[in-house]
Specification:
By secondary structure, this protein is α/β, with parallel strands linked by helices. The chain has one domain: Roll (2,3-Dihydroxybiphenyl 1,2-Dioxygenase, domain 1), CATH 3.10.180. It is built from 3 helices and 8 strands. The longest helix is centred in the last third of the chain and has 17 residues. It is globular and about 45 Å long.
Length: about 170
């Protein structure tokens, strides 16, 4: 059976008879980030995830789980404390098995600016985040690309980006 006949060659336009099940296929379901200390990292993740629309769905001394608060969205993020036997191994961006960075979509460039001012600047001032690149355009990507890049306390890299949707041929 080829990919198209199994539904993977679908176009992204809702008005062409796609069912909610077809539209949902392929959407990222969950991501788990391993951090040095979940309690310390909560100072970073709680304000970042709350403003992005996530709701805390569970927590304990070594983890927090967050679900995107949008009806029908399957997306979940978790952060968990590192296995004690692996505590001495540092994060190395670009190494095999390591995430390079994780990006969330913004609705507008103004939303990127607001996120920077209301969340990132206070976190950076408290020593709980590091702003790598302040909000700005990325014309090397697309003419409307606008983003801010930042790190959590362990050096995990994140981005909030506005970019116009790209049509699928």
């Amino acid at each position: 059976m080829d990919m198209k006949s199994r539904g993977f060659g679908l176009r992204a336009d809702v008005g062409r008879g796609l069912t909610p099940r077809m539209i949902r296929r392929g959407v990222l379901h969950h991501q788990i980030f391993v951090v040095a200390d979940a309690a310390r990292s909560a100072r970073f993740y709680e304000p970042v995830l709350r403003i992005l629309g996530y709701l805390c769905s569970g927590s304990g001394p070594n983890y927090q789980d967050w679900k995107l608060g949008v009806v029908g969205a399957p997306h979940e993020l978790s952060f968990v404390s590192v296995d004690p036997a692996l505590r001495g191994i540092e994060h190395v961006r670009g190494a095999v098995g390591q995430q390079h960075h994780f990006a969330w979509a913004a609705a507008s460039p103004e939303e990127v600016d607001e996120f920077h001012a209301r969340v990132l600047v206070p976190l950076a001032d408290a020593g709980d985040a590091f702003i790598l690149d302040p909000p700005g355009r990325g014309p090397e990507y697309t003419p409307v690309y606008y983003a801010v890049f930042f790190e959590d306390p362990d050096g995990l890299k994140f981005e909030l980006v506005f970019n116009s949707p790209t049509p699928i041929p």
